[in-house]
Structure formats: C-alpha cells, structure tokens
Design goal:
The complex is a heterodimer. By secondary structure, chain A is of the alpha+beta class. Chain A has eleven helices and ten strands. In chain A, a hairpin with a 2-residue loop joins strand 9 and strand 10. Chain B has a four-stranded mixed β-sheet with strand order 1-4-5-8. Classes of the chains: A alpha+beta, B alpha+beta.
C-alpha cells in the first residue's frame, strides 16, 4: 500500500497547475461560458503539444504510454481550474474505448488524431427516457448492404457541437443487450446537433440522427458487442469525474479557509468561531474521503484490477457528499458566495454536472448492494 | 500509489481469519460488538500471543516481529470483523507498548514489552477525571516525589479494562506551579500497589467495563514513570493518534453490521427478502460505501505512522468520521428490525443476537471516548486547517 504520488506524478501535477493557472484564469472560464464553441482551439493545441491528449495511448499511436493514474493527476488539476475543454469527452469517452476495443485500423486512424489535438470526440449514449440498462438504448442502426443506417435521438452529449467524431450506441438487435457502438463522423448528413442551455453553461447537446449512413468498418468492438464497451467507458468517465472533483473540492476548501480567515464580524475573523471551524472540519473530511476514494478508483482502472466496486464507492460517495460540501461552503461565504462576482459558483455548478455523470448515486449503490450479496 | 496489500500481508490476513474462524467453530467464544474493549478472555489473549500477533510491530529484540503499522491494522481489522474477545491486550498492544518504545528507558522496555507480547500485561487507561474530560490538562491527580518514589493521590474515571487489568496507565500532576499542560507526567504502574482501589461504573448497556479508580497515598517507585518529567501531556497528545485511529473506531459494532446484512438476506416480508426492499438495499449500500471510505481513512493513518509521522489531524478526522458511521449502523439496524430492535440479548425473540439494542445504546459512547467529536473537529480546524484557536 502506498498513498503518495510518485515523483513524476508530482512534477506532472505541478506543471499542469502552473500551466492552467496561467492559461485558464476565471476570466477565461467566464469567457468560454459565453463562447459558442465553449473551448479555445489555441489552448487545445497547446495541451496537445504538452502531450496531455495522448498521455495514456501507446507510443505507436503518438501517445506516451502513461497510466490512468497519471491521467488522474491531470484531471484533478483540470477540476481545480474549471478548465472548459472537451478533454474527458475526447480522451476518456472517445480515445480509451477505441484503444480498448478498436481494430488495428481504427486505432491507427483515430488515436494519433486525438493525441495531436486534431480530433475532438464525444459519446452519444443517453436518450430522452434515461436509463442504465442496454434496453434504454432505443436508437436503431439498420444494416443496409455494406452500411448501417442510424435513427434516433441522443441527449446530454458533451461538446457535440465541436466534435469531429461521435461514438454512438445504437440498437442492432432486439435481444436485450443487442447494442453496437459506431464511430460516426459528426459532419455526416442527417446528424443534427442542438445545444442545450445548462446550469454550468457547459456544452451539452441534443443530437438527432436521421437516416445517418455509416460504413460497416465504423463498428467499434463488434456487432451487438457494444454494451460492454459503453459500460467500460461510462465507468472510466465517472472515475475521471471523481478525480476532477478532488481538484474542485480542494480549491473550494482553500478558498473557504482563506475567506473565513479574512472576513471579520464582531471584531474577529469568522473563522475563529467554533461552529464555522466545525463546518470547515466537515468539509475537510468530505474532501479527504473524496481524495482517497477517487485515487483508489483511478488506481483500480490503472491496474486493470476489478474496477466495479472502487468506482462505485467513489462515485456514490461523491454524489452523497457534494450537496452538503457546497451548502457548507456557500453558508460560510455568506451572500457574497451567491453572486457572479465571486468564483465559487463555477465550482458549485461544475460539481453538480460531474455529480450527474453517467451513473447516479442510486445506480452505484445498486452496484455496491450486489457486491454485498444482497441479490 | 498502490491500494493493494503485499502477498505477505494477504497471507497474514488469511492466517488471522483462519485462526478466528477455527476458534468460533470450536465454540470458544461468540462474535460480539465492542469485544475489543469489553470482552476479557485471558486464555484468548494467550492464544493470540502464541501466534505472535501482540506487539507484532515492535522490534525483534523485545520479542516483537518488527512488522509495520499496516500489518498491525490487518490483524486488528480481522479481530474486529469477527468480534473477538481481545480486550485484555488491546490497550497494551495499541498504545502502551508504543509509549514505552518511544519514551521508556532500556530497562523499562525490557520490563514491559515482553510482558505485553506474552499476553500477561493488561493495562487500562487512567486519563479522565470527574472534572477533567475534554479539558484533560486540568487533571488534579497528584504525584509528589518522595525519595525514589512518588506518592500518588487522586481519582480517575472511565478507566477501561473492567476487573481484569493488572496495570494502569496514569496521567498525574507532578508540578503544581506551572501552566496546566506543563506539569503532567506519565506512569505505567501495577494495580496491586497499596492504596489503589476501584469501583466499576455501570453504563447504559449494563456493562461494567469501566472503572472509577482511586489512588490513596499510593507509594509508586519512580521506575514506573515513563518519559520526561512534566512532559506527559505532550507525550499523550502524540499517543492519542494511536488511540483514535484504530480500526476499532470504525468496526466496533461490525458484527452487528455483518449480522444485519445476513438478516436482510434471509428474512422475507410480503413474499420477498428484505434485501430486495429498495429502501433497505440502498441504505445498506450507502453504509457500505461509508464503511469503505472509513477503512481508507484508517489505512491512511497507518501509512502515515509507517512513514514515521504523528498523524494527529488525520487520526482526529478518522475517529470523528468513523464513530458517526457506527452510530448510523446501530440506528439503522434498530429501524430495520422494528420492535425486535428493542430486544435485549437475553430475550428469547431477539434478532441478530440482540446486538442492535445493545449497540444503539453502546455506540453513544463512541463519539466521546478518546476525544469527543467536537474536540476532534477543533483539532482538525485549528491544527489541520490553520484556523485561529
């Protein structure tokens, strides 16, 4: 057992923090909230040049073959900076499934494009009726000669409006798990993207597929073999989200401490009052618990050991504590914390977004319940 | 970063499990909540000692195994999982030996450590007094030097160890003239010295695990004083990290949690098992998630100790968090059992061995022992987060 970062990870963490503090101040976050694309292509290219997009891919595809745990260090810093960029959607929802389930040809084509910063990916999975089971996938892909034709509606697709490719989960058989994942060019005829207005102003979209024709070669992971691909991606996405939350909570904790030390009422810093001290102690407990659980999940993904339980524990924990953590933070910031002038709201809204993830608390508690032998 | 255990650690865990399962199979004892602090069984302690599992993190020259804090945590975790009657040696293994190792003279190490390792020294804690609880440094028990001895007068309360302890760890004032923190020393002394008497305190569960201990002109040879004169309060603050961060703060009522899980799997209501009731399974899974995070908190403290740090703040966080978890387990068990949750252990209709009612009451003390949660949160805020005292 070893709960510390390696020396290389410490260096990566520091360089990521320095880079993001310079390139991603809150004025930039604010600007991107209003921006149509929601990210800066120039900054994206700089991130690619730093090797961030290819971090976990094999060298032959332009990556640097580092681990998911190394990636989690970057994710924490991105969470701390509230970085507006399609990083998780491209690397975790696009790149990793291709790396895990893709054919040689698919890996050779797409992974170098991701690593170099050329291609943005996203995953089109969730549908209007929601649901955690393969049966919730109602969009259909019908075989027609050498092609498939996709019809259906997907919701909450991150950064769909700027994506070059979408991994689309569609039904290819009436069997319950008869789902196939397709790599679809987002500019294909019949793909209609409509951005949704959201709490954190991040770029989630509705994507309607109307007779979208794709080749057989675009199947990822085999015909009717898509559900395990989706599940794996979803698990990694939520593990990544928990890591982002570590950075998010860390910033909020530091900011809250500095606020209660600075703000004076009744002639003393409000941080000298015992009730606020206990609130801070509680927040710190939630933060440290999140760190441990998220690191354990990232480690499990990294090592390829059984990931279901560690990811479930981390995400269920995050979903359990987030609301209380932010209630305490806002309470201590007083009215200032609910204005747009203060930066706290960037964290409140992004945390709520990550909390949704693919699996809600009840979904992950159900995973834990099964592991406990509750049937 | 690595969240796995070594092969040797996994092997140790399995050995402890096999040993305990075999003991249960032989009918030597039954798993119970709080067994680490309330179930005294000198014969069990001797059998554990024979396995080398008491003082296993201490140096070989004193009879230990030179293993680490993680190994000790593995052993204690399994003892708690099975609710084993380890109260005779628990305190000595947890903090008395560590104190002697850190602050004792060579002679004291050679005297105390082998006795603990052999499972013969059962030590209770004499810290709290009737007027000195959270404000421990205000304690009044006095030790006045008299030649080579100290004469000790005063009263301690909540001394653990029932009628089994043969030694007591004592904090006493050795200098009246200085600030309250600066005049306290530590003693580890046999209980058969003339002038020591004790009266059991009966807690709301009916247990007599704690005592009032009276010291009436007790002539105590100075060889029983541990560590620097008047340094006792500073020593104990470090030692409390050991006392607060053990797995017993998370798993004190684990046999109830485990029993509750089995109960909902086996019990049917309206044609389906309670485990298939959505509310019950969600709530139990939530408790399991909280347990898993608590377990990480505990191993984090062990890792810090392994690195030679005194994880004061981390230990406070672990204990405040974990004891609140234990209280939620007890309360939820009573809720699931309905009126059965009220039944005491000796009741013929009791479910899960009557552990729920007992633990509901017994767990009230969890957030008080070894530092009330409010004091722990003060420490987290002030020493951990830098807020003003």
């Amino acid at each position: 057992m070893n709960l510390s970062l390696s020396e290389e990870q410490e260096i990566l963490k520091q360089s990521a923090r320095d880079f993001l503090e310079e390139k991603c101040p809150k004025s930039f976050v604010k600007q991107m909230e209003q921006d149509e694309k929601g990210y800066s292509p120039e900054l994206w290219q700089e991130m690619a040049d730093l090797g961030w997009m290819g971090l976990v891919f094999p060298e032959q595809y332009g990556g640097s073959e580092m681990s998911f745990l190394d990636l989690s260090v970057l994710l924490e810093e991105m969470g701390r900076a509230c970085l507006p960029a399609p990083f998780v959607s491209t690397v975790v929802l696009g790149g990793l499934p291709i790396m895990d389930a893709g054919s040689e040809e698919q890996k050779g084509k797409y992974l170098p494009e991701i690593a170099s910063g050329k291609a943005i990916f996203s995953m089109a999975l969730i549908e209007p009726e929601l649901g955690y089971e393969p049966t919730a996938v109602k969009a259909r892909a019908k075989a027609e000669g050498d092609s498939f034709v996709i019809n259906g509606t997907k919701l909450f697709v991150p950064y769909a409006s700027v994506a070059d490719y979408l991994l689309v989960a569609a039904r290819t058989s009436d069997a319950a798990d008869g789902v196939t994942v397709f790599i679809v060019d987002a500019k294909s005829a019949g793909v209609k993207v409509s951005p949704l207005s959201t709490m954190a102003h991040e770029k989630l979209s509705e994507v309607v597929f109307e007779n979208v024709k794709v080749s057989k070669g675009s199947v990822l992971g085999g015909l009717n073999q898509g559900w395990p691909v989706v599940q794996k991606a979803w698990e990694k996405n939520d593990a990544a989200g928990c890591c982002e939350m570590v950075g998010n909570f860390q910033w909020v904790m530091e900011d809250t401490i500095s606020y209660v030390l600075d703000r004076k009422q009744f002639g003393k810093p409000i941080g000298s009052f015992q009730i606020l001290q206990h609130y801070c102690a509680d927040m710190s407990t939630y933060l440290e618990g999140t760190k441990l659980a998220a690191h354990q999940a990232a480690w499990a993904v990294s090592e390829g050991v059984s990931t279901a339980k560690p990811v479930a524990v981390a995400k269920a924990w995050v979903n359990q504590v987030t609301a209380t953590f932010f209630n305490l933070a806002h309470q201590m910031h007083g009215a200032m914390g609910v204005t747009v002038e203060h930066d706290l709201h960037y964290y409140t809204t992004r945390a709520k977004t990550v909390e949704r993830g693919y699996g809600e608390g009840n979904y992950y508690r159900e995973v834990v319940a099964k592991g406990m032998g509750l049937g | 970063m690595d969240f796995s255990f070594t092969e040797a650690q996994e092997k140790l865990r399995k050995e402890v499990r096999d040993f305990l399962e075999d003991e249960i199979k032989q009918g030597l004892w039954k798993p119970s909540c709080d067994a680490w602090i309330q179930d005294y069984d000198p014969a069990f302690t001797k059998r554990v000692a024979a396995k080398g599992w008491i003082g296993l993190s201490w140096p070989r020259e004193y009879g230990g195994q030179g293993l680490g804090h993680v190994e000790r945590m593995i052993v204690t975790e399994e003892m708690l999982r099975y609710g084993a009657p380890a109260a005779c040696h628990w305190f000595s293994d947890r903090q008395i030996g560590g104190s002697v190792l850190q602050y004792g003279t060579e002679e004291q190490k050679e005297y105390f450590l082998p006795k603990i390792i052999k499972g013969e020294l059962y030590c209770g804690l004499g810290m709290s007094e009737t007027e000195s609880g959270s404000d421990l440094a205000s304690l009044k028990t006095k030790a006045v030097a008299d030649g080579d001895d100290y004469i000790i007068n005063g009263q301690k309360t909540w001394t653990s160890g029932g009628s089994f302890i043969n030694y007591v760890y004592l904090l006493a004032r050795t200098d009246q003239e200085v600030a309250k923190h600066k005049g306290i020393s530590e003693f580890i002394m046999p209980l058969d010295l003339k002038g020591i008497s004790r009266i059991p305190m009966v807690d709301v569960t009916g247990t007599e695990a704690w005592n009032d201990v009276f010291f009436d002109n007790v002539r105590t040879p100075s060889k029983y004083r541990i560590g620097g004169l008047n340094k006792g309060f500073y020593h104990v603050m470090e030692q409390l990290a050991f006392e607060r961060s053990g797995m017993e703060r998370l798993m004190g009522n684990y046999p109830l949690f485990d029993g509750l899980i089995k109960f909902v799997i086996e019990t049917k209501y309206n044609g389906k098992t309670l485990a298939h009731d959505d509310v019950i399974r969600q709530k139990l899974a939530q408790l399991q998630v909280e347990f898993e995070v608590g377990r990480l908190f505990m191993y984090r403290v062990a890792m810090a100790m392994e690195a030679g740090k005194t994880p004061t703040v981390e230990a406070c966080m672990s204990k405040a968090y974990a004891t609140a978890f234990e209280q939620r387990v007890a309360n939820f068990a009573v809720e699931v059992l309905g009126p059965y949750g009220l039944l005491w252990m000796d009741s013929k209709c009791a479910k899960i061995g009557g552990m729920a009612a007992h633990s509901y009451l017994g767990s009230k003390g969890y957030s008080l022992q070894a530092g009330a949660s409010e004091i722990l949160k003060n420490i987290i805020a002030q020493r951990g987060l830098g807020l003003p005292a």
